[in-house]
Structure formats: structure tokens, C-alpha cells
Amino acid sequence: xxxxxxxxxxxxxxxxxxxxxxxxxxxxxxxxxxxxxxxxxxxxxxxxxxxxxxxxxxxxxxxxxxxxxxxxxxxxxxxxxxxxxxxxxxxxxxxxxxxxxxxxxxxxxxxxxxxxxxxxxxxxxxxxxxxxxxxxxxxxxxxxxxxxxxxxxxxxxxxxxxxxxxxxxxxxxxxxxxxxxxxxxxxxxxxxxxxxxxxxxxxxxxxxxxxxxxxxxxxxxxxxxxxxxxxxxxxxxxxxxxxxxxxxxxxxxxxxxxxxxxxxxxxxxxxxxxxxx
Length: 277
Known about the structure:
Layout: H1 7-10, E1 21-30, E2 33-42, E3 50-56, H2 64-75, E4 79-84, H3 102-120, E5 125-135, H4 137-147, E6 160-164, E7 184-189, H5 197-205, E8 214-219, E9 234-236, E10 251-253, H6 257-274
Parallel strand pairs: 3-4, 3-5, 5-6, 6-7, 7-8
Antiparallel strand pairs: 1-2, 2-4, 9-10
């Protein structure tokens, strides 16, 4: 898929006062025109250029799990950008009746590209130390970006990617021998029946070139959304489920604090290594 970037619209640096958190907009050029995604920027205390991580949500939109991770990243010295791909596009009930298609996911890769492009235009960002994270459906989109070569050299290249219980069912177009374009961490849940670890493992097993770049973690006893702290595990009968025949329906989700604690430690170690100077 060839991206036609409207670079002058994207590299315009927005005035960014030194705030811990700030609402910003990210222009994304689409065939029908430009849309301005909303996002929350979390900046670390240090004035020095910082590594940066763009975060992409699941089918439920930006959640507390995303903003909690952004706060953690900020505390670790990263600039974090929690991006909302849905609101400006008037996308609602995405987990149910409007379950996103493969084409939708491929189009959303541009949200990652333009978010990284926005970040590299900021003076407080170390443009050589970029990463992106995707959760669930957003993890499937991030999977596509992590394994798809960029066709436009003007796009910034990320140095790391983190896929959190990703929808690996979206990875079919990656072919028989997917190749990671940067270090990539898979964070999966053992009991996940919405985006099963087995589907991701089948894709990982197809990776031949660059296998050393792939790091995997499967958290024992955990379900989908193990990072939704305080939310008991329950069953959602009406949600789309790409792992079931016809993409329908139902899945479990809910918190698992030991899995969350292990995940946080794994993400911190992975990013520290992948984004080291």
C-alpha cells in the first residue's frame, strides 16, 4: 500500500509548552482529505530530548489501560502519545456491530506513520529513539506496521514496537515469511479467547529472517485485557471475534494483576534495550 503523505501538514510543529500532559492534534492525510486525530501527550520532566512512544488503543477506544501506560512511560523518561483513532472518524460500537475489517486495519497503519512523523517534528523528542505500542485491535494494526516495509523513505523508522494481546488474525497479508522491521515484543495472555496467543504464535513461527528481533511473553492464567486493573474477568457475548468462524462472537476479558506486573517489567526492560543509545 503506497502512502501519499502531505508532509507540510504533518511536520508543522505545534507550540508545546512544558506540561506533563497536553491535548494535541495529529493531521492524517486520507484519500478524502485530512483528519485531525486527537491525542494526549505526556512529557517527562527532563528538558533534554527524550525517546518517544506512540500508543494505539483497542476496539473500545482510548482506555485507562492506555493512559496508565502513558503515565508510566512518562515516569520512565519517555514522551508518550496516546492517540485516539476513532472519535474524529465518528466510529462507535467498534467492538460489536461495527467490528473493523482487514482493510480498516490496513488504513489505520497511517495513524501510526503520521503520529511518529508528528513526534519527530518536536524539539523535545529524540527522533532516533521512537517506538509504538498497540493494544488488541490496535495491536493488530501495529503488527501490520511492525512487519510491513515502508514504501516512503520520508516516513520515520521506529526503533521498537510492542504488541499487547494483539489481534494477530489481521496478519494474514504478511505472507509465509513475515519479517520484522524493528525489534518487536509480543505480550500475550495464556487464556485469551479474543486474540488467542496461539494465533500469534503461528505467525511468529513463520518468521525466518530477523527472528532474533522478536521477543515473546505469554502471561500464565491471564485473559484478554489483563491490564484492566480492578475489572473482574467476565464474558462479552456480543463482541466480534476474528478467531471464531465468521468473526463472531463473544470473548472473555478482565484483569490479572500478576500478569500486569510482569508485563510492566517486561515493557520497561524491552524499551530500555531497544531504545538504548
